[in-house]
Amino acid sequence: MAGVDTRAFRRTSFGLKLVVQPDIERAFASQVIDRIRARDFVLEMGPLTVRLPHSFGQCHGVERAIQLAFETRERFPSARLFLTDEIVHNPAVNRRLQALGYQYLDGQYAGTLAVQDLGPDDVVLLPAFGVEAGLLEALRQRGVQIVDAVCGEVMLVWKRVREYARDGYTSVIHGAPRHQETRATVSRTRQDDPFMPHQIDAPGAWMVVRGLDDAAQVARFVRGLCSADELQRRFAGAVSPGFNAHHDLERIGIANQTTMLASETLAVQELLRRAYEERYGAEGAAARVRLADTVCSATQDRQDALVGLLGEPLDLLLVIGGYNSANTGHLLDLALSRGLAAFHVEGAECLESTQSLQHWDRAAGRIANARDWWPHKQPLDVGIAAGASTPDARIGELVVRLAELAGCPPAALH
């Protein structure tokens, strides 16, 4: 990493965990959730039983990012602190960091300052999703102190797509083209990262497929059933500059946004692999298609745990997390695919009454109001699933609100 001042770049703790941990617990921990964990993830409160999956809420990568954010504030008490964008997709976490003094350079929390306004006295925290390589280089050029809170699972995907690029394979990413993580990932196929070893020799091509419908269209092209122009129109904005389908889809390496639904990623891989086999034969496909297991282990754990919870006799499932959280949305998909009444809420405040609930309508892509959503029966069995960026405090508030709506005595929570 010649020419890089690694003193201005930090990826590890400042050694202040014990100092900041009390503040983190006050902000994000929940005694209610601790009690539910201690009771085998079930809380019986007379007319209401609340069940949690055995894996839920904040993952290690999110906890690490939050810890680094608090440590950075402690380490630089008088410096201006910035985040490039949301540290994780949870509004409660981002609001708490704003209260600590963090300013945002982009996204829904962005202020008035931009990269060109920063200098050597400023500190920039990179979010768990990562940042695009070009932005990282711009920050380096400004001489700011960079604190890297990027999740290790995301960096493993970067490593894989860089291998694809070096070997002349086009990276096909199962993900959302505009998601922070996916933008950061595809940038690593074309630009050098000043803080990563093994630089690439030439820009690699990339394509982002949102799901099975997109993958099926790619498969049709591979089989010769649709034209390059049709493919180009469908994937406008979701392919690398100068993308040439005939050339760039000769050899592909498949990876994914780490928060995608694991079963769908596997289905995308299988659909594309079969298309290449039909065109090139098994041996030819093996040389032209590379597969990677880059689904985050925490995402997989939470999906598997929810499948286990869905085996219980639930009357309702609430999924709590940021509305722009991909992994939270996929938990909702799992529940809905099994025909269960389920809603994605951001917090306890969404449960306005037993007659009115504010939730994210995934199909419409907007906040909606559900009327008469409350199952009027006793006893009532409600499950709660939580996205990987949701703090225990927000889940605990939801449990308390459910108890209020069910008419449980306050003592039932203890």
Instruction: Work out the count of structural domains.
Output: 3
Fraction of residues in helices? 40-55%
The CATH architecture of the largest domain can be given as 3-Layer(aba) Sandwich
The residue ranges in which pLDDT falls below 50 over 5 or more consecutive positions are: none
Major sheet size, sense and barrel closure: 5 strands, parallel
Total number of helices: 14
The structural class is alpha/beta
Q: Looking at this structure, what is the CATH superfamily of the largest domain?
A: 4-hydroxy-3-methylbut-2-enyl diphosphate reductase, catalytic domain
Order of helices and strands: EHHEEHEHEEHEHEHEHHHEHEHEHEEEEH
Per CATH, what is the topology of the largest domain? Cobalt-precorrin-4 Transmethylase, domain 1
Q: Name the CATH class of the largest domain.
A: Alpha Beta
Radius of gyration over alpha carbons? 23 Å
Describe this entry's structure for a reader.
Helix 6 runs parallel beside helix 7 and helix 12 (297-309) packs parallel to helix 13. It is built from 14 helices and 16 strands. The chain has three domains: 21-58 and 298-413, 4-hydroxy-3-methylbut-2-enyl diphosphate reductase, catalytic domain (Cobalt-precorrin-4 Transmethylase, domain 1); 60-151, Rossmann fold (3-Layer(aba) Sandwich), CATH 3.40.50; 153-295, Cobalt-precorrin-4 Transmethylase, domain 1. With 414 residues, it is α/β, with parallel strands linked by helices. The strands form four sheets. Strands 1-7-6-4-5 form a five-stranded parallel β-sheet. It has helices at 17-28, 31-38, 60-75, 91-100, 133-142, 152-166, 180-187, 212-222, 228-234, 245-248, 262-288, 297-309, 326-337, 392-406; strands at 9-10, 42-45, 48-51, 81-83, 102-104, 123-126, 145-148, 170-174, 206-209, 252-256, 289-291, 316-320, 342-345, 356-361, 366-371, 380-386.
